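User: Can you fold this complex?
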Amino acid sequence: MKKFAYFPGCSLEKMASSYHKSALETTKVFDIELQELDDWNCCGATTYFHVDQLLAYTLVARNLALAEKEGLNLVAPCSACYKNAYFTNAYVKEDPDLAEHINFALEEDDLQFSGSIEVHHLMDVFVNEVGFSAITEQVKNPLSGLRIAPYYGCQIVRPRKNGEDVENPQYFEDLISAMGAEPTNFPERLRCCGGSLIMTSRVAALDMVRVLLQNAENNGAHVIATACPLCQVNLECYQATVNEEFGTDFNMPILYFTQLLGLALGISPKNLGIGIELVSATPVFSKLLPKEVN
Amino acid sequence: MASKPSFSTEISNLLYAAHGNPINSCIQCGTCSGTCPVANYMDQSPRRLIGMINADLKDAVIDCNTYWFCASCYHCTVRCPADIDIAGVMYAVKRYSIWHKTYSEDLVGPQFSAAFVKMIVRSGRSYEPLLAPSYMTHFGPKEFFQEVVTASKMMLKGRIPVLPPRIKRLENFKNMIRKIIPLGESS
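Assistant: Here's the predicted assembly.
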């Protein structure tokens, strides 16, 4: 049994509850426990950093300090939460002045952070802690025939961490292959979904979503897999608006990688939160996958 | 004798020192503009904005929408051959414009960010329905209707929280924030 401190982030409470459910179900199969941090706070997304950098790092550090207190490494399923946690952790380690400022504020909540933990994205747990061969061994219903577009998005790969390949990562493709599905070519897989621009710069954001959907469709994808709740909501919930604005006819299901992995592992769709999509994946599944999967 | 720092120096001072090279090492190659997925919607491309900062064209920089249209995807940052953290520069200009209240009133970005931070300071957690007024008041009737339809569909699937969440140790949390930024007692 391996245990991690789990930082779900605000989106996973409701908007992306299917990511939360499927994260817990799929990690359980590999004897990994995700222990939710007690009393975690919002990571600040991008907006804290628009106002004050020190405040932003302090708010992120509170969550890191909570994990450190438990003696556990932190796992975040949301790419934006992950990026904030990863870099705050790194900067506290390398910058004693920043650490001093942060700890001065953390005292108010009886917390201190020394930077002794590691921060992982949930996908990193599957890729590096579990490994592809262990995943393949556990696959009960290979998703053969299903063509999945691996949508990395931005914050899981950028900014660059230690020695990471930011131009041509392959781990998402390999993970899809381990599920028995076929990863499609997806040239725009590292292009940003627009993030919070959907609220602040709507026309630009809808166009960004359109480019991604078009690119996945052109490459024959049945479904797009994501590793971030913001990407999921932009690509799925705004698909109808994109169709209305650009006269397109997209009907592309957008699922979390943990939902697809869960199906391959033989977990029931209901336990993976399947059924709360706005673009249903059921037609694709019933055409391509054996009955026991859906 | 001490003189007032130039605009480019002020922006440089807002960048966290550990990230990348100084803005004035820009070679104007345009890799950032070619990479940026939002460049088509910006008044000035990222390359031009950096050139304008280096030329101390403060008013022209502040007036354009470029930095508020940056989604912080860091694609420019990882590709910059001069190793400038361009997304970080966009953040710095955003902070400058918020602190000096110099952004254009048509922009939704600064108002959305202010609403978001206020919400976190009060509850410690994000709650989407509280943010809606900060951007939906800028919408025309068509966009407003589209947004209501999208939100209703999500609500029917149980994807919008009914009650705003809040953290348990909220007083400690607020005191912690006060140690970084003194909040007006009116909040």
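Chain B has a mean pLDDT of 90. Chain B touches chain A through 65 residues (CB under 8 Å).
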